[in-house]
Amino acid sequence: MKLPIIIPLLTGVLTVSLSPVRAQEAEPLAIFDGKSLDGWDGNPQLWRVEDGCITGQTTAEVPTRGNTFLTWTRGEVDDFELTAEYKLDGGNSGIQVRSFAVKDEQWVVGGYQADFESGDRYSGIVYGERYRGILADRGQKTVIGADHKPTVKEQFAKSEDLQKGIKKGEWNAIRVVAKGWTVENYINGTLTASVTDEDKEQRRRSGLLAFQLHAGPPMKVQFRNIKLKRTPLGDVKKVVFVAGTPSHAPGDHEHRAGCMLLAKGLNSAAGDRVHATIYSGGWPADPTKFQNADAIVMFCTGGGSHMVNSHLEEVEAARKRGAGVGCFHYAVEVEKGPSGDAFLNWIGGYFEKNWSVNPHWDAEFKVLPKHPVTSGVEPFTINDEWYFHMRFREGMKGVTPILSAIAPAATMSRPDGGHSGNPAVRSAVAKGEPQHTMWVSENEGGTRGFGFTGAHHHRNWKDNNFRKVALNAVAWISKAEVPVGGIQTPQPSDEEMKANLDKKR
Asked: What is the spatial distance between Cα 14 and Cα 7, in angstroms, rounded to a whole number?
């Protein structure tokens, strides 16, 4: 299962407005094309598209021995509103949200489920599939405590009265709302059940979205008009990492593994203020990916092959909703013109071909500025492909250098070329001018950005200062508070460093 930027064009020239950020509510977007199961994964013997509807069916000849699911593969869901219509002929079904794949069982998930059935008992409940059983019965508002069991806080409606509003064998509208630690089920516009999960050991803030086919007698379920709208997380800031496709040799440019390591660190060490999620394998197909993002962080191949080049409008739309933007290593390089102009606005600078250079060298960061991003970071020295001589905004307006070092003469040993040298950078190095390899920006409109030119070598994430300054920057652009002492994470083990590496020759 594979899971895991609006800029007006005028006569071919990209212009990015630096107008103040305005809060804009996201629109519900279709996550089913009405024609195919692209973006969905399930047993092809049981799931198909029929009459423009997702259709799951079991028969006497083709049964399912256990509950089986059709999973949306284009992203995980956290805080959201999902609307759809369903029609059920026999049996039981439901919509899984914030769920998890069950290990070693294909097409099986567990987690919160907005339930419905062909009978008179369960439609509208919130169930825990392989996950604590019934969490809120019909007409109930419950709270789950540390004992993993729900306690009824309110019986707001009679079960039999709610059943009267459900049309058997016909199309019904279902709406599932997840906000914070609360999951609610609505059928035909009426709240049927609500659960607030205070079970810190087992509760889930994000996970899979899936439709269920229940084991038992033959049944058929159909879904149509499936729309998803992500909503702000509110109590925490959401960071969306976008990892590019594999490139370079093993251990270098490990986009996916690097993003996963950083996301894990944020969620474990700063989970009370940041929730990080990841899309890997290139630009995400999820149309809702940035709807509730407080920060977008890219780690990918750059230049003319940068994945953002044809998606500038999507990032700019997110920026207008207040999202910060950050880039690691090669992702800071884009071509001069529309992409370069966008990067000047989003992160304050970028690697410009025939101006910037990319040598490997031991950068000595002897003095650090006082800034939230440097909280808890000590001076350090590390070898990496540290890019420098960036193209920054005029007068460095709003830009603060974070990691600066004197580039040694050896960095100019290569002949002039698009990435290796030019008269301007040679003059700067000869004069001993500090070269900025990481910077942050405060932008008109209130958004923030950063560029971090290191991370060519995956091994460098083991360095505590290298890792901490990166984590601090990600949190800072999301406008999460960076704690005194910075975001503290344990040094990754060798096993953790090897986890999630791309398969490369």
From this structure: 7
The answer to whether residues 86 and 146 belong to one domain is yes
pLDDT at 505: 77
- According to DSSP, the residues that pair with 432 across neighbouring strands are none
pLDDT at 418 over 70: yes
Domain shared by 192 and 246, yes or no: no
**Beta-strand (E) ranges in 358-498?**
361-365, 380-384, 391-392, 399-406, 434-442, 448-452
Residue 21 has pLDDT above 80, yes or no: no
Q: Please, what's the b/e burial string for 187-202 (b: 16 or more CB within 10 A of its CB; e: otherwise)?
A: bbeebbbbbbbebeee
Long-range contact list for 154-158, CB < 8 A, 24+ apart?
156/191, 157/190, 157/191, 157/192
The one-letter amino acid code at 374 reads T
- Which pTM does this prediction carry? 0.93
Q: CA of 491: how far to CAs of 277, 435, 488, in Å?
A: 21, 28, 9
One domain, residues 36 and 128: yes
Domain extent for 48:
26-230
Q: How many domains does the chain have?
A: 2
For the chain, count helices (H), then strands (E). Answer: 7, 30
Which among 180, 197, 230 is the end of a domain? 230
Question: What is the pLDDT at residue 417?
Answer: 98
CA distances from 98 to 178, 275, 276, 457 (A): 9, 14, 14, 34
Residue type at position 346: W
Query: Up-side HSE of residue 206: CA atoms within 13 Å toward CB?
Result: 22
Q: Same domain for 186 and 284?
A: no
